[in-house]
Amino acid sequence: MTFPLDRRPARLLALALVAAASISTLAACSGLKRIDTVVRPYRAELVQGNFVSKEQAAALQPGMSREQVRDLLGSPLVTSLFHDHRWDYVFYLRRPGEAAQEFRLTVFFKDGLLERFEGDELPSESEFVARLYPEPPKPAQPPRLRIPEEALPAPRPAASEPAPSAPLPERYPPLEPTS
User: Which member of 20, 49, 80, 137 has the lowest number of beta carbons within 10 Å of its beta carbon?
Assistant: First the structure.
């Protein structure tokens, strides 16, 4: 004789899980802050493009060849087949919580020689490094620790002469076993 399986405990468990999920959903919607205000995802610092410093731009001279400009500034970020006479150097610095910084320098050529250049006010190399690595806040001075005299160990007498060491052996055993 076979007995039918009693499914009441499974139904009660499923009903309890549905009830718990409903209650937790209603509780979450009622008064908690939005999840994006509580949990902040990690946003990486983004440095992209070709950095051109104020010193590099100052070294540009009309009449320089394309190779000389490439040696000085590096390869351009943007070149176009339709605008062969123009190279664009673009640099972005994006930090979480700060406005994005963008720097541009455009170099124009005529007959393969540098004619002119124009662009944004570029930072110097030291200014750029300071933007990348701002100084961390200085920590507060730690409190000066004071040990009571009775807690200090007793001073040891000074040794006048070091103790003689054991003589070194004339021969050492081999490192690998001999067969």
Answer: 137
Rounded-to-integer distance, Cα 96 and Cα 44, Å: 7
Considering its fold, how many domains does the chain have in total?
1
127 is in which domain, residue-wise? 46-132
Q: Quick check: is 53 in a domain?
A: yes
Residue 26 located in a structural domain: no
Residue 63 within any structural domain of the chain:
yes
pTM above 0.90, yes or no: no
The string of pLDDT tens digits covering residues 100-139 is 888 999 999 999 899 999 988 998 888 888 877 777 767 7
CATH number of the domain at 82, please: 3.30.1450.10
